[in-house]
Design goal:
Elements lengths: L13 H11 L20 H4 L10 H14 L17 E2 L8 E2 L8 E8 L5 H10 L4 E4 L1 H4 L7 H5 L3 E4 L12 H19 L5 E2 L10 H10 L3 E3 L3 E3 L4 E3 L11 E5 L11 H14 L3 E2 L6 E2 L3
Helix pairs in contact: 1-3, 7-8
Length: 298
């Protein structure tokens, strides 16, 4: 069984990459052709000028198709994420207290999208992520997903990692130490069995108890090697920000949920996620894969 599943599968916003190719292929209007024969010797303008792109450029149809994928979801493509850093800014250890973080120390203009719980299992959302190739990290609650573990397997197959979000979603600080341990360990065992990968990260419901010794000890005993919080949380149409200026910062972790019309005032999971991507796109950020910025224990 693969421990932590730290393959370096990376899926990027392919539509955004292709859009870059399209822009690069669009030149300005061709200069006026002189009446005489063009100079063709070495160093002449005609010799040094690259040929004008044409609609037969093989990259153009692919770029058009990629833009069309984003248009299908009524979205503008995101900027492409940079290559993952060789020197991972978050380095985890195999033993001892686990770190608690809500952002990644990076100057890359990227944010990280995380999805919690697993209550809404909308097939259209699987289609959306398959189309757009936007990376997400999933923090699943055992008792919320156990009626359909299979729903999350296509999302995992896209390269998205599954992490631990307790057994039944309690406020952890209200529970005694042995219950906190059970909440983390039971979910860890179930998710590992179902998905063949031991979750590396843990998120407490509501962020409750994240900095307490009891929860840190429970996480250490059960296997995850970091506790992950967030800087922004997605609502229905906009984000709630912790920063006073209400702007994204490089390395911010964003919280969203698997939610549907019942919880989103009639909106669908794909509509909510589209709004999230629009807010990110408006501020010029790319979405990177959180795990690509974390070095797991040796």
């Amino acid at each position: 069984m693969e421990r932590y599943g730290w393959n370096r599968t990376r899926t990027y916003a392919a539509g955004a990459l292709a859009l870059t190719a399209l822009v690069a292929g669009c030149g300005s209007a061709a200069p006026e052709v002189p009446s005489g024969p063009p100079a063709t010797g070495a160093g002449s303008p005609a010799a040094s000028r690259p040929p004008a792109p044409t609609r037969t450029d093989p990259a153009t149809p692919a770029a058009d198709a990629a833009v069309a994928v984003w248009t299908k979801w009524n979205l503008k493509p995101l900027p492409p994420a940079p290559a993952p850093p060789a020197d991972k800014p978050l380095k985890l250890t195999a033993t001892g207290a686990v770190p608690v973080f809500s952002e990644v120390p990076t100057t890359d203009k990227v944010v990280f999208v995380t999805l919690d719980d697993g209550a809404e299992k909308d097939p259209k959302f699987v289609e959306m992520l398959t189309d757009l190739k936007v990376p997400v990290s999933m923090f699943l609650t055992r008792d919320i997903v156990k009626n359909d573990y299979g729903y999350f397997k296509p999302l995992k197959a896209l390269g998205n990692h599954i992490h631990n979000h307790t057994t039944d979603h309690p406020a952890m600080s209200t529970k005694p130490a042995e219950v906190q341990k059970s909440e983390v360990c039971d979910a860890q065992a179930a998710l590992t069995q179902q998905y063949g990968v031991a979750p590396m990260l843990f998120r407490p419901p509501y962020g409750d108890g994240a900095h307490t010794p009891a929860l840190n000890t429970a996480v250490q005993q059960c296997g995850p090697r970091a506790i992950v919080l967030w800087r922004e949380s997605m609502q229905i149409h906009d984000m709630q920000y912790q920063a006073a200026d209400k702007k994204l910062k490089p390395g911010d972790i964003i919280l969203a949920h698997f939610r549907g019309p019942k919880d989103l005032k009639g909106e669908t999971m794909t509509q909510m996620f589209g709004e999230l991507l629009s807010r990110i796109q408006e501020q010029g950020f790319a979405v990177a894969r959180l795990e690509d910025y974390i070095k797991p224990p040796a």
